[in-house]
Specification:
Elements (H helix, E strand, L loop, with lengths): L1 E4 L3 H6 L1 H13 L3 E3 L9 H5 L3 H14 L5 E4 L2 H14 L6 H10 E3 H9 L7 E8 L3 H6 L4 H8 L2 E6 L14 H4 L1 H17 L4 E4 L2 H14 L4 E4 H5 L5
Parallel strand pairs: 1-2, 1-3, 3-4, 5-6, 5-7, 7-8
Helix pairs in contact: 5-6, 7-9, 11-12
Length: 240
Amino acid sequence: MKVQLFIPCFVDQLYPQTAFNMVKVLEKACCNVEYNTNQTCCGQPAFNAGFWNEAKTVASKFIKDFDGTDYIVAPSASCVGFVRNYYVGLFENSSQHNTVKDLSKRIFEFTEFLTDILKIENFSAELNAKATYHDSCAGLRECKIKEGPRKLLQKVKGLELVEMSETETCCGFGGTFSVKFDAISNAMADQKIHHALETGASHIISTDLSCLMHLDGIISKKMLPLKTMHIADVLASGWE
């Protein structure tokens, strides 16, 4: 199966190893993985800041970069959710409307592609740790992802998965929200971390590095006994 990779800006700049691990897992699933080096942003930051015309310009480039019939897979429910749910509105009553509707059916967050399209849950991964899973707002609400990541993690050898309290509550990141309302954002992160620590877990795992980056900032500052891991890094653990 041919797959086009979409690597979000912050993953490309800050967490490239997660992107490489996603490729590793997809290739193990016998996918032919391709990466268009012309790709840039999906337009979400501009859209969320209210610059819809600028977002549409960036989105038009995204549509061009991912033209075709291949599946598009990304390690971010946030970006996938934006393309899937908001492009249609941006390009309503335009010549690209039908193209965008088709695009929304071809783009998938990494874990939902594994479980819903490839229908593979066991990658022979191994991670000796106790972990809790964080439902990102985008994953849960924009992409309707809930059970898939948990099924994948339950198949990881040596990994004990425990649920934290209020797992569906926001971690407080929210993009520019964490900058404009930093006190509220940090308080929400503290609450999320507190619930994770209550489980006795050593790791917080999620589909979204934006959430994990936010949480890890608080964890590192307070020197707490927690590590954050993207689920692609987990699934790529323990095998060559």
